[in-house]
């Protein structure tokens, strides 16, 4: 049986989900019928990782206009804040550096990295002052250079 337009009932989207016309900030066209929760999508920087959509946590991204969970940045990368929308927002995480082959790698014992920023996403390992070292690999601050 075919559902007649007059029988279709609009449904309310769950909290923090929206129909495409709302996400695109435009008027709904005459062919769009939102009679199913499947038409409800998350906005950019949000994901469906839990029963209720949530803003993507640090280290994850979602472009939005979908029903997908937030996607993790690749190993050694993170984001500097919540709600990021693209893997282009992933930066080298603290304690790591961008290796010569373009793949993030952990800083060795005796060095540290504060990580990348959105302006400078690649990070380098900084050697501890002469006579000092870190206790472990992946140190994240100069204060970790406390072992003499």
What's the alpha carbon Rg, rounded to whole Å? 22 Å
Order of helices and strands: HEEEEEEEEEE
**Beta-strand content:** 5-15%
Overall average pLDDT: 91
How is the largest sheet built, in terms of strand order? 1-2
Distance between the termini: 79 Å
Q: How much helicity do the residues have?
A: under 10%
Structural class: mainly beta
Largest sheet: 2 strands, antiparallel
Broad shape:
elongated
The total count of strands amounts to 10
Spans where pLDDT lies below 50 across 5 or more residues: none
Structure annotation, total helices? 1
Written account of the structure:
The structure is a single chain. The protein has 148 residues and is mainly β. It has one helix and ten strands; from the N terminus they run H-E-E-E-E-E-E-E-E-E-E. A two-stranded antiparallel sheet has the order 1-2. A hairpin with a 5-residue loop joins strand 7 and strand 8.
